[in-house]
Sequence to fold (569 residues):
Amino acid sequence: MTSITSNELNYLVFRYLQESGFTHSAFALGYEAGINKSPIDGNLVPPGALVTFIQKGLQYIELEANLSNDEFDVGDDFSLLQPLDLISKDYHELRRIIKERKENLEKNQNEGKEKSKESFKENGHDLVQIKDKGMPEREREREASVDNLEKEKDKENNMDKEKLRSPDVERESEKEHEVKMEHKAEENGISDGPEPMDISSIAPPPLPVEVPRSDISILTGHTSEVFACAWNPTGSLLASGSGDSTARIWNILPGPCGSRARELPNSLVLRHFRSRTNEKSKDVTTLDWNGEGTLLATGSYDGHARIWDTDGDLKMTLSKHKGPIFSLKWNKKGDFLLSGSVDKTAIVWDVRTGECKQQFEFHSAPTLDVDWKSNTSFASCSTDNMIYVCKVGEMRPIKTFSGHQGEINAIKWDPTGSLLASCSDDATAKIWSLKQDKWVHDFKEHQKEIYTIRWSPTGPGTCNPNQLILASASFDSTVKLWDADSGRRLHNLNGHRQPVYSIAFSPNGEYLASGSVDQCLYVWSLKEGKLIKTFRGGGGIFEVCWNKEGDKIAACFSDNTVCVVDFRK
Fold:
């Protein structure tokens, strides 16, 4: 019996996912299995073929049981059927086909016997002659009849294979094709059956475009993982922070990236150590540009915050934390710098003097993230499952939010500063308001820890002038988009195969970039919730970010590189 090939099975699964609406799963399979290069002609595969195939398999088992008491061998019964019979015919038709073909085989065998008897009578051969000549003759005739049947079956099989695997063969005219199809339908007792899916009229959604290497600038120089990256808000400078105890400022010229770039980007190296002896304790864990793009702040594992100018010169070192700094943010005005540390505290620094303006010691465990609400008020979150809203000059929190059942990994105020989003190891994201103690929305659809969240740009000039959208990225490999007003999920962006560490909206809010441990950078269209561009690097991705024009995306990788992707459409 003819067996189905792995390519044919992959195509059936691909069509099933596509027809069932699992677009991203279909893309992933199609991309990895090379479906676009398959020789299979989709016009010959009817809708629901995979489900039909499985159903036929179950019927096949029943059929085998029903035929097991017949005088014919079950294996012979099954050898009378072709793979396409299983898809296009129901159980009763399959039994009828087996019965007819077995009867034809038996008829051919009987005709061979009759011919041998007649030959014996006419020629007066005795019993010895029957044994010596008649039996071999009957065997030859029987074999000939079986061979003819097998040849006919093989011919059908080869024709079916050619139809499946050679879509480029010369097509019959429409009339000839219709006549043959009608004749075949009458022959098999089929009328008004389902038509094969017409791929030309119901085309699958376009596959996302893989960004060519020629459109990517790979920035090398770091000697350890690159944990953070950030574009200068006013120019073409890109900052990166690494486990090699350095930060770098790269000058990315306007225009194309990669091999078409006018010249290779050069970089300034911002060293966080004076000698190799203490290098390991100074990994750069976070960095942030001030609003004017004139100063870069870096936080490191040694507990010091440092401020650099765009020429790479160290302007000041801020020392008071007693543990690694995991979060660092400038306020909008640019006069205060906020840091959160493993030492359980948050500090507001006066960058004009380099002094600690105020240290906030409310958490009972490491502070993981901080974010400004205004120029003087901010929120902090911790592994103690708590969120505190604080204000410079106040000795106690002005608001406390509790409700998460796990470590809170990130917090973000919305663009207007009225709503605070948080995400946690308890696999939930929540939205809070200063007007109430309990959360406004509690999003519970993720299956694993949520690592980060981002608000979409909103207002005039964006694609969401009247809608506020929150994106959440999880260890369950998905990114979800939520409507902050109604609390409903807008899209489930499913394509990554491992935890998603970073997400970033384009400046106009039309696209979302996501980076994962699976080494893939994905760009999604938010209007349709579809994957449109992909790039696979050489290591896991820790952070992704857009430049201010929205035509370049930077991503930092665990293979010590920073990649800049040309996103010009």
User: Anything to note?
Assistant: The first strand starts at residue 209 and ends at 210. The chain has a mean pLDDT of 80.
